[in-house]
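Readers of this paper often ask what the protein records in our data store actually look like. The remainder of this section carries one protein's record, kept here as part of the documentation.

:::
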Amino acid sequence: MWFKLPMIVWRLLWDRRMPVAPKIIVALAVVYFIIPAGIIPDRAFGLVGYLDDIALLILAIAWFMIRAPEPAVRDAERKD
C-alpha cells in the first residue's frame, strides 16, 4: 500500500478539504530535498547528507497524513 502514498499525497495537496499548513510543510520539505544545500550538505557527506533530507521528507509526509481529514484520504485512495 505504501507505493500508492505518493499519488494519495499528490491528490490531497489539491484537495480543498485539506488544511493549508500541512500543504506548505510538505512543499517546503520537497524543496529542501531537491536543493543540495542543507543542514548536512549532500555533496560533502554523500549518503549521510541525503539521509537528513529523506528523514525530513518522511516526517513531513507523516505529519501531512495525520492532519488529513479522513473523508479526503478515503476519496484520494478510491481514485485508483
